[in-house]
Amino acid sequence: MKREDVFIVIVAIVLCFTSVVFAADKIVKCKTCKKEIGAELTRNSVVQRDVSKPVTFNDIGCALIYREKQCSSRQNVFDTATRVFDFNDGQEVEITIASYVRSEVVKSPEGHNFVAFKDEVSAKAFLQENGGELFTYDDVQMLDFPE
Predict the structure, then answer these.
(1) Which of 17, 89, 121, 127 has its Cα between 20 and 30 A from that of 1?
(2) SS3 of 93, please?
(3) Contacts 24+ apart (CB under 8 A), 12-16
(4) pLDDT, tens digit, for every residue of 128-145?
(5) How far apart are CA 120 and CA 98, in angstroms?
(6) Cα separations (Å) of 123 from 10, 56, 88, 133?
(7) Residue 38's pLDDT is what?
(8) In this structure, what DSSP letter does residue 46 have?
(9) C-alpha of 30 from chain center
């Protein structure tokens, strides 16, 4: 084999390897239940961004199961760094500020059936149309989420 042929083979192998690595990076999995988070589920998902490595969750239940297993200082970081997505427009909202609705109309991956809203007015409008129960972040923390 000529030197140029060896070089071409090496470049081809490197390109194949890097494309596999980049493809694998696009698969996002829940930190708690390990299920994939598809694009259609992003409005139920929760993300912790302001940390060294972002952590994602399928829904608020998975996020709070994870939070509960952390020490108090990590729970504080979780509360300040974690965002949910507004059900209506997909905007990121701080987890502690959002209003939450649990409704049988909502189907989340782990069956916790919560959606988040950027404000209480939006949450109440959803409640009027779909029924359910309104929660603050403090209320949601008090619930027991089975693993």
Answers:
(1) 17
(2) strand
(3) none
(4) 999 999 999 999 999 988
(5) 8
(6) 56, 23, 10, 9
(7) 66
(8) E
(9) 7
How far is it, in rounded angstroms, from Cα 133 to Cα 124? 9
Burial class (CB in 10 A: 0-12, 13-18, 19+), 64: buried
Which 8-state DSSP code applies to residue 39? G
Between CA 122 and CA 66 the distance in angstroms is 27
Residue whose C-alpha is closest to residue 59's, from 48, 46, 49: 46
Among 78, 73, 21, 23, CA closest to 55: 78
Residue 25, pLDDT above cutoff 90: no
The Cα 25–Cα 58 span in angstroms is 17
Q: If you count them, how many residues does the chain have?
A: 147
